[in-house]
Design the sequence.
């Protein structure tokens, strides 16, 4: 599971980001992540249906559930064999502009009016002869790939020669980067150029989020039992399993699906949704935690369930979706998948801490834990989580890059991949231009 999810998170995000048009990149990434709450909902549906079908032989039912659970991963593996590399990856990582140009020609045909044909009457293949010895100028065959405006070959500056140029009559030789060279470049980009704060921001924001998300989510039936005030529930296993499934669907899945739909609609504001989402979750955890402590064993305790469902909504209408989306946009193509994977791994590390916290954290003078009946333990835990959500908002504000310009339009992946210093210059130029065109106007976010 760890290897599979660890590979699928960055691949799904990065492939989508690199193939998507700039105008629709945010919504396409949000739609990909929307499959998470859909998958969680379907898992609950399958579990409930299997338990109902095998109520008289539950061990056999659990085996059936596990077998059904193997079908989606097998299907995903098959699809992975058919998904091509993006032209951006082929150009920047594989260092093969000729293949990148051919891929662009396949995906966006000139006859459709999307790709402006490249003039090749004055010499051999432009992409194949992009570099001369000692030159660092190459053709940007795929860098505008997926953009809504007409595409054409553009020049950009490489940090190092991409090709070993051979005579025009022979086929070019592609020299791929070695692992030591990759890590030297990665260290230079992160440490020497000061872009480590971008990676730290996406990683720590994701870790703070998942610390609470996986603690309170469908992976923690004990917490859901606490929310429903049914820790020491007695009865047949069939009844307990069915109740666990229904609780997860009501308290988690429905809110998560609604939140995911809202995020897709407003994905253009993803950075602001992450900041405000963290603050809203912090406030909600305070409200839910205090309500849990005060309303436990009262007739008003149902309000806690409603508030908990609202928390699930704002998880997906905020940082649970935005952390996935933003981390796929703000790094260079060469390091995009690595940085997204590191950010996601930090999130899963937060989920591990959450499970340890769930097992060992005690509150109150007798030292109550999650399995203790008549305990307001969860209320105090939610108050602790409020602090983590507030820190997530602060980290996002200080360190997480905004993938949009000051007018809220998505930047190109190439502009974002230039790093923090270039991004700051672009933001300054945009503000100066705005102030010169609209003097005396309020500042643009």
Sequence:
């Amino acid at each position: 599971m760890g290897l599979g999810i660890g590979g699928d998170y960055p691949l799904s995000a990065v492939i989508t980001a690199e193939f998507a048009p700039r105008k629709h990149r945010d919504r396409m990434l949000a739609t990909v992540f929307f499959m998470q709450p859909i998958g969680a909902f379907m898992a609950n549906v399958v579990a409930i249906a299997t338990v109902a079908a095998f109520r008289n032989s539950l061990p056999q039912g659990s085996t059936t559930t596990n077998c059904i659970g193997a079908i989606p991963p097998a299907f995903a593996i098959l699809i992975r064999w058919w998904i091509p590399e993006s032209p951006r990856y082929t150009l920047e990582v594989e260092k093969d502009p000729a293949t990148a140009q051919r891929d662009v020609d396949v995906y966006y045909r000139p006859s459709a009016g999307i790709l402006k044909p490249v003039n090749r009457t004055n010499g051999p293949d432009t992409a194949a002869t992009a570099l001369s010895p000692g030159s660092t100028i190459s053709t940007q065959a795929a860098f505008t790939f997926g953009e809504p405006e007409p595409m054409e070959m553009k020049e950009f500056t490489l940090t190092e020669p991409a090709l070993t140029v051979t005579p025009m009559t022979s086929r070019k030789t592609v020299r791929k980067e070695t692992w030591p060279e990759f890590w030297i470049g990665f260290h230079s980009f992160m440490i020497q150029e000061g872009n480590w704060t971008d990676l730290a921001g996406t990683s720590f924001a994701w870790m703070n989020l998942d610390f609470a998300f996986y603690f309170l989510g469908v992976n923690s039936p004990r917490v859901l039992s606490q929310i429903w005030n049914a820790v020491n529930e007695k009865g047949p296993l069939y009844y307990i399993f069915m109740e666990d499934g229904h609780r997860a669907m009501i308290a988690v899945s429905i809110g998560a699906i609604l939140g995911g739909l809202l995020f897709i609609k407003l994905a253009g504001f993803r950075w602001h949704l992450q900041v405000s989402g963290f603050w809203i979750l912090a406030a909600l955890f305070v409200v839910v935690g205090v309500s849990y402590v005060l309303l436990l064993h009262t007739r008003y305790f149902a309000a806690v369930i409603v508030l908990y469902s609202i928390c699930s909504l704002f998880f997906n209408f905020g940082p649970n979706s935005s952390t996935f989306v933003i981390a796929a946009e703000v790094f260079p193509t060469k390091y995009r998948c690595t940085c997204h994977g590191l950010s996601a791994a930090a999130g899963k590390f937060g989920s591990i801490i959450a499970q340890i916290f769930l097992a060992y954290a005690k509150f109150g003078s007798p030292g109550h834990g999650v399995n203790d009946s008549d305990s307001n333990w969860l209320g105090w835990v939610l108050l602790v989580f409020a602090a983590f959500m507030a820190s997530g908002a602060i980290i996002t504000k200080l360190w997480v890059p905004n993938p949009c310009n000051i007018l809220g339009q998505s930047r190109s992946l190439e502009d974002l991949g230039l790093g923090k210093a270039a991004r700051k210059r672009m933001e300054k130029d945009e503000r100066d231009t705005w102030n010169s065109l609209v003097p005396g106007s309020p500042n643009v976010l």
Observations:
- The first strand starts at residue 137 and ends at 139.
- The chain has two domains: 2-84+186-399, 94-176.
- Residues 72 and 235 are 33 Å apart (CA to CA).
